[in-house]
Specification:
five-stranded mixed sheet, single chain, Ubiquitin-like (UB roll), globular, about 10% strand, DNA polymerase, domain 1, about 160 residues, binds FE2/S2 (inorganic) cluster, 5 strands
Length: about 160
């Protein structure tokens, strides 16, 4: 199997330990600090990125499991911060300390790709694995709902 991963559109060859968590590779090898280390045990969601479009916890994902796949991090969600979720996050002033927010947005992006018109309950349920120590859950729910509306309008 090829030891390459496409990260935000750029193909990289992995020369480090294949069992290294993807989170470590992103942060320590590539110095991409947008993806955060929270618990390191799959419990908080701060490290959420996409592998082939699906949200994964990069602290528990060995780099080898992403070989031949496409990884998207918060830095690559849009080129200029214009993803509807990013705009909704700004509009609703979602972040407080900000630490959990990249993971929140990446989890929400996968969720909306699977459920473009969610109810408030579905949003809460989908986002419940992403912990926010600052308690921004109400604003997260509003922003996800708003982004879903904007995406629906854009799709006509
Ligand atoms: S750091 Fe990965 S789930 Fe908490
Ligand atoms: S905004 Fe502080 S942990 Fe979520």
């Amino acid at each position: 199997m090829s030891n390459t991963i496409t990260i935000n559109g750029e193909t990289v060859t992995i020369e480090s330990d294949e069992s290294m968590p993807l989170l470590w590779y992103l942060r320590d090898t590539l110095s991409m600090k947008g993806t955060k280390f929270g618990c390191g045990r799959g419990l908080c969601g701060a490290c959420t990125v996409h592998v082939d479009g699906r949200a994964v916890r990069s602290c528990l994902t060995p780099v080898s499991s992403a070989f031949g796949k496409s990884v998207t991090t918060i830095e690559g969600l849009s080129e200029d911060g214009s993803h509807p979720l990013q705009l909704a996050w700004l509009k609703h002033n979602v972040p407080q300390c900000g630490y959990c927010q990249a993971g929140q947005i990446m989890a929400a992006a996968d969720f909306l790709s699977q459920n473009p018109s969610p109810t408030a309950e579905e949003i809460d349920s989908a986002m419940s694995g992403n912990i926010c120590r600052c308690g921004t859950y109400v604003r997260i729910r509003k922003a996800v709902a708003d982004a879903a509306d904007q995406m629906e309008k854009a799709d006509g």
